[in-house]
Fold this sequence. Notes:
CATH topology: Alpha-D-Glucose-1,6-Bisphosphate, Chain A, domain 4
Structural class: alpha+beta
Strand content: 35-45%
Oligomer: single chain
Number of strands: 12
Order of helices and strands: HEEEHHEEEEEEEEEH
Amino acid sequence: PNMEYVGLAETAAEKMGLYRLDPSGWRGCRRTSEVSVSWRPSAEFAGNVYRGEGILPASPQDVWECIKPVAGGSRTKWDQNVKDFEVVEAVNDTVSVCRTTTPSAFMRIISPREFVDVVLMKQYEDGTMLSAATNVEHPLCPPQPNFVRGFNYPCGCFCIPLPGEPDRTQLLSFFQTDLGGYLPQTVVDSFFPASISGFYSNLTKAVKALKA
């Protein structure tokens, strides 16, 4: 199954590249000083794909340090939507199967979730770094009691260097998640834009703290 995991991870990364290049059909739904969030219907499942775009006041390396999906990484500290993150299996140097758990959210309307994903890390020639993921099954991760199993469809973050601005990074992220369970669509549609603006806001604080 290792080749299968690698194939799924590479497909997710290819889809991220296609989303990045395709400006059509995105509709803005939220804008803060840190991020503009837009959405369009997903081609992967009966929900939406969300796009977040913002400029962070730190180098691509510092931003990557905060978001990279590794065991013991800083994401559980600053990302309010990540309670626990574990690497279940390191498939190779760049691909791993990971389990993420999330706390309850949205005034406890959304109960704790767990996600099992294959994650790929990649660096491009221009210095852009990508982390891409999509849901998988793994024998070491049967569904846990007390968690609703959610599913991430191809999603990820690009840390993009800005020419001539070594201390600023464009972060382009795509979120495409089926939260599972029986949530009213209105809750789901309110949750994601708020959650993405929170992600950018908390990440901005984290990169500033890293530099301090």
